[in-house]
Specification:
This protein has five helices and eleven strands; from the N terminus they run βαββαβαββαβββββα. The chain is an alpha/beta fold and 220 residues long. The chain folds into two domains: 117 residues, NAD(P)-binding Rossmann-like Domain (Rossmann fold, 3-Layer(aba) Sandwich); 85 residues, 2-Layer Sandwich (Alpha-Beta Plaits). Strands 3-2-1-4-5-6 form a six-stranded parallel beta sheet, with helices on both faces.
Length: 220
Amino acid sequence: MKIFIAGAGAVGTFLAEDLASSGHEVLIMDQNPETQHHFAPSSSVEFLYADACEADALQGAGLDSADIVIAATGDDEDNLVISLLAKQEFAVPRVIARVNHPKNNWLFNNNWGVDVAVSTPHLLSALVEEAVSVGSVVHLMNFANGDVRLIEVTLDSKSPAKNVMLMTIALPREAAVVAIVREGHVITPRTDTRLSAGDEVLLLTRIENEDEVRKLFVGA
């Protein structure tokens, strides 16, 4: 897979090395030539010194053949411009953008070419909620311009889904259980899987179905 990363700071550098070690073809671009020294001479990551906010620079980098673009600079405005160019000018299938300032999170949607926005403060907040919340819905990530959410519910002893098989739970049409974590083990959901108190249930659902999902797994 061909992956383009904009921004060779700590985040971009780590992503580039990690993805390259997994066998992906990785090109990273940065305006600061000094960041090239972050990569060892033997690194398989290709470095390009240029401004990723310039369409000509992206054209020269062959962005039209990229499978994924990651806008990982330390500037939200730059990440939005890069995302928009990647999607509208080069039709990149998947655009992931880093959100540096949490208050800018609302901007990172498909109007700016962003498929997935990653905000570290929001992720940390969700993880804290997940760690302390039993019997409530925790939002983990948004997709499709916020219309689809990945949510997590830890079933308590009063959950209406406790001791119930998945096939008997009347999920809304556009909602699905994607994984169950039980005692540290990941369980692939099957129609005959029976839920237990303490199960961490991960679901994908459209936002308008969330209240119905909440009632099914948490109760009124």
